[in-house]
Write a structure and sequence with these properties.
Elements lengths: L1 E2 L5 E2 L2 H49 L1 E3 L1 H5 L12 E8 L19 E9 L7 E4 L5 E4 L2 E2 L5 E2 L2 E5 L3 H18 L5 E6 H10 L3 E5 L3 E2 L6 E2 L2 E5 L1 H9 L9 H21 L6 H12 L2 E4 L5 H10 L9 E4 L2 E3 L7 E3 L3 H10 L17
Parallel strand pairs: 3-16, 4-11, 6-17
Antiparallel strand pairs: 1-2, 4-5, 5-6, 7-10, 8-9, 11-16, 12-15, 13-14, 18-19
Helix pairs in contact: 4-5, 4-7, 5-6
Length: about 375
């Protein structure tokens, strides 16, 4: 230390320089930390905003219907609390993105596929009951999507119910014909189905007999084939050129494809891969309509997780037992006593007896 004429002590020049250097270093370090902190905050906000945009985007894709409001109180009581019954509807609407798919330019909309999926208490397996689209049923009075009442009708085709009264009317019709409370419904149209298949990169099916498609239909030899969305849509809609050319043969193809698609999702671990999951969710929700209790990503995700124990390999597929109508041989009616036995087994969550699976009318 040295003292000047006023007696003030000053540190040596070298020490002062070191202090100034240290101060500058701390200042630079603080600036760097502040920059890093703000950068991290920006990234977090951006990621959060991106996640919120993604959630809002996908969530906004889903359309919903309040079944209780649309159907009213006249619904079957739920018998087994832990069991689940989901009605899956495949709409052949040509509206919007569906206009150019598989023929296009067809007025109105029908339920090209009507399938009741029963998941027993414990949720370790599943049974899918396909209702042939040519089945004659008694359609109850329904409240249409415009709020007006659609009068009931005897000997109505099941696939025409959707076009008259919308998905809620299909749910009401299936509930009244089966006595089973439908917990949820999921409707997917052509564009949504095609998008799901393409998001998976295609689905592989194995044919035990060839499909000789006509009028723009698909043509495939017996054996293994990987189908993209466009061909998959033709595959599940094929009727002429396969088996006896009836709707009963088409149901077999639809069930085969459903199992193959579920197997592909599980094989790819699509639900555990965020990027692939987003593609599936974006494709699926674009053309998805559900009941209001499933109409959010959170609800759909929770529902999917609860079904994780269901193995596609053990899923049983059954066609509703039907017989050819005595008045119109081009139509079928529910066969008895098989149909009553089938519905009762599902309603009470019991094993389906073998006798309930025998259908007098079969695809040739």
């Amino acid at each position: 230390m040295t003292a000047d004429s006023s007696g003030t002590t000053t540190p040596p020049a070298g020490r002062a320089a070191r202090r100034r250097s240290a101060t500058r270093t701390r200042t630079r370090g603080q600036k760097i930390r502040r920059v890093l902190l703000w950068s991290l905050l920006v990234i977090v906000v951006a990621l959060g905003g991106g996640a919120w945009w993604t959630y809002s985007h996908l969530n906004g894709n889903i359309q919903s219907v309040d079944l209780d409001q649309a159907i009213g109180d006249n619904r079957p009581q739920k018998v087994v609390a832990g069991a689940q019954n989901i009605l899956v509807i495949g709409s052949d609407s040509r509206a919007g993105d569906n206009g150019e798919l598989d023929g296009g330019n067809v007025s109105g909309a029908r339920s090209d596929t009507t399938m009741l999926v029963h998941i027993p208490e414990g949720r370790a397996k599943a049974t899918a009951i396909s209702i042939p689209r040519d089945t004659l049923i008694t359609r109850p009075d329904c409240k249409g999507e415009n709020g007006k009442t659609v009068p009931g009708q005897k000997r109505a085709m099941i696939n025409g119910v959707y076009g008259l009264g919308g998905p809620a009317c299909v749910v009401k019709t299936v509930e009244q014909m089966s006595g089973i409370r439908v917990d949820h419904f999921i409707e997917v149209d052509f564009a949504g189905f095609k998008g799901l298949v393409d998001a998976l990169g295609g689905v592989t099916v194995n044919l035990d007999q060839p499909i000789n498609g006509s009028k723009g239909g698909i043509k495939l030899d017996a054996g293994e084939h990987k189908l993209d969305g466009t061909d998959a849509l033709k595959f599940v809609r094929t009727r002429k050129g396969y088996a006896d050319g009836s709707d009963l043969g088409r149901i077999g193809l639809q069930q085969k494809f459903m199992i193959a698609m579920l197997t592909e999702i599980k094989k790819q671990d699509a639900l555990g891969n965020p990027a692939r999951l987003y593609k599936l969710a974006d494709a699926g929700t674009k053309s998805l309509t559900t009941d209001k209790d499933l109409a959010s990503l959170t609800a759909l995700s929770d529902f999917a997780k609860s079904m994780k124990g269901v193995d596609p390999a053990t899923m049983e597929t059954i066609m509703l037992p039907v017989a050819y109508d005595k008045i119109d041989p081009n139509r079928v009616v529910a066969a008895e006593p098989q149909t009553t036995q089938l519905w009762e087994a599902l309603r009470t969550d019991q094993k389906i007896p073998a006798s309930a699976k025998k259908s007098p009318a079969k695809a040739g």
